[in-house]
Specification:
Length: about 70
């Protein structure tokens, strides 16, 4: 497993975190409808958590919020 990617300057209260999640066996779980629903869920969670999501990518077998 890759070590966590957490970047934070000693002079800043901002923390940048790189996250990634993949499915087992490379199965495709996201079709276009599922990708849109997932995007909506991510947007709701971001608003609730009061964080800034800089960018993210949803593919058929994994997603990467970065």
């Amino acid at each position: 497993m890759r070590p966590p990617r957490i970047l934070q300057s000693a002079f800043s209260s901002v923390t940048n975190v790189h996250l990634m999640s993949r499915v087992i066996d490379g199965r495709m779980i996201f079709d276009d409808v599922a990708k849109e629903k997932f995007r909506e869920l991510v947007a709701k969670q971001v608003a609730f958590s009061q964080v800034e999501l800089v960018t993210f990518c949803v593919m058929g077998n994994h997603f990467i919020p970065a």
